[in-house]
Amino acid sequence: MKDVKGKTAFITGGASGMGLGMAKAFAEAGMKVVIADIRQEALDEAMEEFSHTNFAIFPVKLDVTDRNGWLQAVETAEEQFGNIHLLALNAGVGIVGPMSEATYKDWDFNIQVNIYGVVNGLVTLLPRMKAHGETCHIVATSSTGGFSAVGSAGLYCTAKFAVAGMMESLATELQGSNIGVSCFFPGPVSTNLGQSTGATRPDHLKNDSVAPSPDAPKGPPPFDTSVFMSKEEVGKRVLRGIERGDLFIMTHPEFTDGIKARNEALLRAQPVEPRNEERAKVVAMFGTLLYNPIYDKQELVDGPTLN
Asked: Which stretches are tagged as biased composition: Pro residues (predicted)?
């Protein structure tokens, strides 16, 4: 999607954090931007920030787990700006803690927002994008936890691995169409994910309060968040990835060794024995299981020159 000027973007979780960073970058590039968020106060604050600009920004309140709400939000956005060309599925929650202590409510909240929040956006907007036929792009926010497991964030990693698989499959399906697809894997970014997770958790999915055991392990020590990437830089990197047509949009080179380690472990786990060519022919009939050309299209990303 090389030419974004004049096109319309729809961003979930768009009123704060990375979503707001994307909104700024997209608007600066000349896009009309719909910021969708579950929190009215966040929408109000974002619109106040944009009130000092000439950007075309439109707020809609949306709970990404609400399928009827999705339809209403998209119809409202289309009435305001016309066809939607860029869908940024960015809304998410950060459920942390040992998997051995997770409750059904923890799992349900995590999956409803982090997985079904993406699914609902695809089901609502993908047919519309295909129908109007104009150049489009879909980007979904996974995480570095979507390719590197974290023991204290198993629920979160489960959802983010799922988003990555979803986007890679969608990119495979939409090859040669009017719709490009990217999966975004951000590392540490200055956001309020922890606060927004608690503020947006519905009452019926909240756990009963239990006093922590004095023997419970303590959390990590305080760390310097000043080294985290700003939401504005994140937005510019996402825009660059969309314009380049990248399958994978990464932000932090610090994770290179972890990516290599996982990929090398997968290769070492492959049996060292001759291929069964007859079996391979049968498997090849199922499409891209043996070899997927979408990975060949990912080009090297040099250090950014971001304005």
From this structure: 214-223
